[in-house]
Amino acid sequence: MAGLHLDVLRVGKKYRLTNFGEQHEFIIEATLPEGDFRVKDLNTLEPYNLKELIAYGHGKDYIIEELYAE
Questions:
Q1: Is 7 helix (H, G, I), strand (E, B) or coil?
Q2: What's the domain of life for this entry (predicted)?
């Protein structure tokens, strides 16, 4: 796994998760118990828990990267 670890994610920051060929861009809204995060998808504005995205394992392309303002 390259990129960031879940321990360094911060509320208010934007990230991109690539896993099994799918990309999700989101902003962290809150930290939850047991290392989970409440996030909002930047494209659909749908709220969900981060662990819902990674519940079925990590693909070979698994990476989390911070999105920087341009």
A1: helix
A2: Bacteria
pTM > 0.90: no
Angstrom distance (rounded) from CA 45 to CA 58:
24
- Tell me the pLDDT tens digit for each residue of 14-66: 999 998 888 999 999 999 998 899 999 999 999 999 998 888 888 888 899 99
Q: What distance in Å separates the CA atoms of residue 19 and residue 61, rounded to the nearest whole number?
A: 6
What backbone phi and psi angles, to 5 degrees, belong to 6? Answer: -60, -25
Domains of the chain by start residue, with CATH? 2-67 (2.30.30)
